[in-house]
Amino acid sequence: MAHNTWNGVPVPDAGDGILSSLEAAFAAAGVIQPAASVAAARTALTAAETAGTTPTAAHPAFLDVGGVIYRSTGQKTAAGVWSIAPINEPESVEQSYAGGTISRAANSQHALITSTLPVRPYDRTILAWGMVNAAISGTVGLRLLMRNREGNTARWEQNESQSTQSVFNMDICPAGVNPQVILALSFGGTSASTARISTAADANRLMVIAFPRTMA
After folding, report:
1. Which of 10, 116, 140, 163 could be disulfide-bonded to 2 (CB atoms 3.0-4.6 Å)?
2. Tens digits of per-residue pLDDT, 41-79?
3. What is the model's pTM?
4. CA 176/CA 43 separation, integer angstroms
């Protein structure tokens, strides 16, 4: 009865068939296979499936396409095409806000978009950009918060007519921590202010990209 090494490769025990054991071991070992193109990589995965060694999450296949390493866990698209992902692929999320009129008291804020970027089990460098088109009555800023901490703020001119403001922020988010990327309006001055935000969703956006980083 074969047993697995620390990295999940099955190796034979005494009395196991050597040839069949070698085939099972090499199929699970995660050897990087060269492929001339993405199409050739998918052809190789089909060959593995035909041979009864379809990649799985526990034993993924790795393919080198022009110097870029792709990983397959055996998943296919709805059209039946092999899904392969580059190793350490950055994760990105784009969201928009459809607009409206928002009035708040001085020294308060109102969340417009909360990013759906999920928690991950590794440290990440997270970059975020936000933009909003609005007409302002009073004193209003556009704030980009990360992990519910003090954010970066860009302000419209007081009582400014319809115009676009944008803001950027960056954070090192630890493993297992919610990045909590929020695009918000901040209201200043000494009395209530109002933002009349464009109803064009493409004028009001939050864009977030996350990169894995060294775990130390």
Report:
1. 10
2. 999 999 989 988 899 998 899 999 999 999 999 999 999
3. 0.80
4. 37
